[in-house]
Write a structure and sequence with these properties.
By secondary structure, this protein is an alpha/beta fold. The protein is 31% helix and 20% strand. The protein is built from 18 helices and 19 strands. Strands 1-18-14-17-16-15-7-8 form an 8-stranded mixed β-sheet. α4 packs across α11. The chain is globular.
């Protein structure tokens, strides 16, 4: 068992140690977020006793996160409108959830989307629906983001050596040797951007299913990012901090736990030519909540919120589902011709009847990281030294990833604002990390966050009006060495008769593009099954 001091130090580092056991100012706010207690009912759930007649639907989608909503969007576009989406939470979107009770809407999770390539036609179509892209003359023209959707300048800054500096690489403390190692690393990335296999495929691209599976590429997945850097003599502390920041940002993992393939994927997948910058980012005040809200509107009243699916039972000619209404405490029986299980893999064996007593061995390979997200509501902007406020603001050599400014896209650089702070809870033992996250108390967690941010912001304590927290116990899949190109991930995507699987964890990297791609694939599998049935067109 941890003492409170050990708990805070293990999550927040030095900032946690500074506030443990000390008198501290309290701030209004509360824990928001995922229904952990309700979700945990699945551990020992039995099929709910349903009252009333069984209800019928062509396609049932279990899970209203990005992949489930994307599947619904794809079905709607294909003309299949007889579907229902069942989502446990009171808001759809999964890790693209957002809040509306601040000076602007604000993210509770994913907060940007890189501009897609022209060949990502369905994703481009979605962004066209949102009005996020400039009209193009032809479908093969490169998409361009509208000014209001592209992250405006200044985009990013880092606090190091007592003040803020432009960019995320800590150039202010970098020696000539550090810069030389940075150049060597960028040359390695450029090599992989330039790479094409015998079939003309890139080593790294989006979605993951389009990446090369050539032996020299997949071999990268069998070692850690730290080992890959060691082999190349890349030992600069500044460089390693910058690369680890990237791994923490997208995967919630340090260099020792991240696959070298996943690390290079971060840097190479969104570059079209060697030496260029990654694709520009699209964002909104509520982050990817803008995407999930649009997808939820497409689903309309076919999206059921507060609906806990406790059993999915495939039968010869249909699938039976038990669905509990969380608020009313009632239960229903549904019968679908096809089911899309758009849930993380740790949930699947708890509700899929054939796997409840004996889960397939491949599901044990899926591991998930824990995150703490905080939204700081500020009545004014505290002062800071050096480079001005940016969209993304990162503090060098701290446990967190810093914060994004929700008002940045509104061109509101004075007055009230809202910061979304991200902290991955890193531990080789993922279950231990989740236990520590759930053991945090609001007051001490907020005190540690303020202690971390205060040295970089003069008058921060006086500016804070409220701090709300969200604990993500299973925020994102972990691409540890051997997972992305291992057999388990591919096996988990294989459909069963009348059941398909869709979730970003099936890619090994937790990105909206991957959730979207799996939603589209699962919808295609459902449509194929339905069209093969007798009497169907």
């Amino acid at each position: 068992m941890f003492t409170r001091r050990e708990l805070l130090m293990s999550v927040f580092g030095a900032a946690g140690a500074a506030v443990a056991g000390c008198a501290r100012r309290s701030y209004p706010g509360s824990f928001r977020g995922a229904s952990h207690e309700i979700g945990h009912r699945l551990r020992g759930a039995t099929p709910e006793r349903a009252a009333g007649p069984e209800r019928r639907v062509r396609v049932a989608i279990v899970g209203g996160g990005a992949s489930g909503l994307s599947a619904a969007w794809a079905l709607e576009r294909a003309g299949e409108r007889d579907f229902r989406v069942f989502e446990l939470e009171p808001q759809a979107g999964g890790t693209s959830a957002f809040g509306t009770d601040g000076v602007v809407p604000h993210p509770w999770g994913a907060h940007y989307l890189p501009l897609p390539r022209a060949e990502q036609r369905e994703l481009v179509a979605l962004l066209d629906e949102l009005g996020a892209l400039v009209p193009r003359a032809g479908a093969d023209d490169a998409p361009r983001g509208r000014e209001g959707a592209l992250v405006r300048e200044p985009e990013e800054r880092v606090f190091v050596d007592g003040e803020w500096h432009e960019g995320l690489f800590p150039s202010a403390i970098a020696s000539p040797a550090d810069l030389a190692e940075l150049a060597r690393f960028e040359a390695e990335v450029a090599t992989w951007v330039r790479y094409r296999d015998a079939r003309g495929r890139r080593a790294f691209t989006l979605p993951v299913r389009a990446c090369s599976d050539a032996a020299e590429v997949t071999a990268l997945d069998r070692q850690s990012a730290a080992q890959w850097l060691d082999e190349r003599g890349l030992r600069s502390a500044a460089l390693r901090w910058w690369i680890e920041y990237a791994c923490l940002d997208d995967y919630g993992l340090d260099l020792g736990a991240t696959s070298a393939w996943a690390m290079l994927f971060y840097f190479a997948s969104r570059r079209d030519t060697p030496g260029e910058h990654s694709a520009p980012f699209l964002t909104w005040p509520e982050g990817n909540g803008r995407l999930s809200a649009h997808l939820a509107r497409v689903a309309g009243d076919r999206l059921r919120l507060g609906a806990l699916v406790t059993e999915v039972a495939p039968e010869a000619d249909s699938v039976s589902l038990a669905v509990a209404d969380v608020a009313a405490g009632t239960a229903e029986r549904w019968r679908a011709e096809y089911v899309i299980l758009a849930t993380p893999k740790y949930v699947v064996p708890r509700i899929l009847r054939p796997w409840r007593d004996s889960p397939p061995a491949h599901l044990a390979a899926f591991r998930y990281g824990s995150w703490l997200v905080a939204n700081l509501h500020l009545r004014e902007r505290p002062a800071s030294r050096g480079f001005p406020f940016a969209w993304d603001n990162v503090l060098y050599d701290t446990p967190s990833l810093g914060y994004v400014v929700a008002t940045h896209q509104r061109l509101a650089d004075r007055g009230p604002t809202l910061w979304t702070y991200y902290l991955p809870v890193v531990d080789a033992d993922a279950d231990a990390a989740r236990r520590r996250l759930l053991a945090l108390e609001h007051g001490e967690a907020v005190a540690a966050i303020v202690a971390e941010l205060a040295p970089a912001h003069l008058g921060l304590e006086r500016a804070i009006e409220r701090v709300d927290l969200w604990r993500w116990g299973h925020a994102m899949v972990s691409p540890i060495p051997g997972f992305v190109w291992g057999a388990a991930r591919r096996k988990a995507a294989e459909p069963l008769p009348r059941v398909s699987f869709a979730s970003t964890d099936l890619s090994g990297v937790a990105l909206f593009e991957e959730a979207f791609d799996h939603g589209l694939r699962a919808a295609s599998e459902a449509l194929g099954q339905l069209r093969r049935q007798p009497g169907r067109g």
